[in-house]
Amino acid sequence: MTLKPRHRRFLWIGAGVLVLAGAVSLVLNAFQSNLVFFFSPTDIVENRAPQGRAFRIGGLVEERSVKRESDGLTVRFNVTDTAKTVPVVYTGILPDLFKEGKGVVAQGKLGPDGAFHATEVLAKHDENYMPPAAAEALAKAQGRMADNRAVLDQAAKSFKP
Length: 161
Prior knowledge:
Blueprint: H1 5-34, E1 38-39, H2 41-45, E2 55-61, E3 67-68, E4 74-80, E5 85-91, E6 103-110, E7 116-123, H3 132-158
Parallel strand pairs: 1-2, 5-7
Antiparallel strand pairs: 2-4, 2-6, 3-4, 4-5, 6-7
């Protein structure tokens, strides 16, 4: 059976649309599976982070929290946004700029033990860098501290011995 030229053209257009739809579907699926969201330690503690899916955590490396294990590669440290703290476990070589009290972004998954198991750790690259969500969380925490300081200063001024 021979198809009329008009029907053959419709067949080619239909096949092209199907191939294009398949390609778009594959691209969107790849994009979705590689999409990594950022969460602060407060988000993680309040169970707003995904379970069993990779995401990023950012904040400050808590002072005196870095502990190296005997294998020489595994490092445990805490990441804080000054409101909440999350323990992080990382096996690998840390960046040169990684230090306590400095900004850090780690990518990985939350483990059943409650610790964040990082597959990648990024330290800030200059004095001005801070992940936007972490900077916002720190600013909120520092704002609360400034409000408390203002109240204490006012109380001290009104105190007369």
